[in-house]
Amino acid sequence: MNFPEHFxxxxxxxxxxxxxxxxxxxxxxxxxxEFAGKPGTIYRGDNAEVAADHYHCLDEDLDMMSxxxxxxxxxxxxxxxxxPDGKGPANPLGLAFYDRLVDGLLARGITPMLTINHMELPLxxxxxxxxxxxxxxxxFVEYARxxxxxxxxxxxxxxxxxxxxxxxxxGFGTDLFPPALGDKxxxxxxxxxxxxxxxxxxxLMRQVQPEGxxxxxxxxxxxxxxxxxxxxxxxxxxxxxxxxxxxxxVLVDGEYPxxxxxxxxxxxxxxxxxxxxxxxxxxxxxxxxxxxxGPIQVVAEEAGSGGSVTPRGIGIRQADPADRPKTSFGWIxxxxxxxxLLRQFRDRYRLxxxxxxxxxAFDDYVAPDGRVNDLERIDYFCGHLDAVARALDEGIDVxxxxxxxxxxxxxxxxxxxxRFGLTYVDYxxxxxxxxxxxxxxxxxxxxxxSAAPEVELLSGTCAGN
Length: 465
Ligand code: FCB
Known about the structure:
The protein has 15 helices and 13 strands. The strands form three sheets. Strands 1-2-3-4-5-7-10-11 form an eight-stranded parallel β-barrel, surrounded by six helices. A three-stranded mixed β-sheet has the order 6-8-9, covered by helices on one side. It has a two-stranded antiparallel sheet with strand order 12-13. 49% of the residues are buried. It is an alpha/beta fold. The protein has one domain (8-461): TIM Barrel (Alpha-Beta Barrel). It is 38% helix and 15% strand. A hairpin with a 4-residue loop joins strand 12 (423-426) and strand 13 (431-434). It has helices at 15-18, 31-36, 58-68, 79-82, 92-107, 123-127, 135-151, 164-173, 187-208, 230-253, 258-264, 277-281, 336-348, 375-393, 436-448, and strands at residues 8-12, 72-76, 111-117, 157-162, 213-219, 223-225, 287-291, 296-301, 315-318, 353-358, 398-404, 423-426, 431-434. The longest helix has 24 residues, at 230-253. Bound molecules: beta-D-fucopyranose. Beta-D-fucopyranose binds at residues 14, 17, 162-163, 219, 291, 357, 404, 411-412, 420.
């Protein structure tokens, strides 16, 4: 277990998924509030009005983090708590909540890692065209300025946004997320405007806080073909380009990959790129935040036969290999690609990496003895932490690991049906029950930090055991 002394050990959440209190202290409506209110959008008609009620249970949750022994907490800020209508004066009550959160972390020796926007948009901005309207770029920069001005004396680690590529695919290319446009030609323009907003916000924050650490968070799902054949390889490469590389390559290279341009338009141009956009997008980064859950396998299929994800002819369908272990979400469990990914990131992007999310949903329940025996989750974390340890052994610059998630929470379109927490949330009473994985992670962190060298780890297969 060779984790460096300054390696950050943490957990992650996002505002919309845990806070609840959607109508409290002047918070404005977000696009997700509206989306979740429409029939058929969220599993079982769930919504995030209460979620894990982190807004009201903040002190208890902060104390739980102390018990867990984490040294970092990755959280996001709700845009509409700060600017309820997406613009105009900041809401002091919204800022006060994040003061309490940040001060509470610092008082407990926990480093705040703040994500400015995790997959939400003020409803007022969505109604004015959302990320297809360039005015939203200015609104995001204004919001980032408000937050940064208020918190930069206490927060060093900033991420602008979370998973732009996937969120935009689902929201603009399909109807799984708001704004549910289902128009694949709108995906790249909407991604582009978010990337410009990200770059401009980074420049602005860095000017004020040269010692700050500024980055962005993306998910990466290594894609392979489930069948042999050139068409399947092509489908796998294309999906990799669209969901994994469509943002990160342009952020680092300052230009769109030619294959992406070919995919988007037959005329070769990207008409939505204006003036200095590409310079703004390529604003230097201090790190990349990597969310890793597992690999995916795909096959090519006839264009237009349901699974197609491209506007230009190639159809792609996700395969569901029966022989691979999976989470209750059906996501393949395999830590090995994480190590390969970290090697690729080192060679291709040459930036320090934080694992900003990693975790798994299982069908957890409280046993008669009051425990939540989530041994599968322990194995999951164990294997993935082992991959991180091996990457560190190879000299790869991984700076921290944030387990997703501190709490069971509102899992977007899947509502409350998927539990990812280290802590079980009884949604009826809001009672928190640390799962076995919570106790295991506490011991793992303690051991890795050498605070308790003799502690016993639960899982027999675990690295460093
Ligand atoms: C990631 C999201 C996060 C959560 C996990 C399970 O894609 O960033 O909000 O939903 O998946």
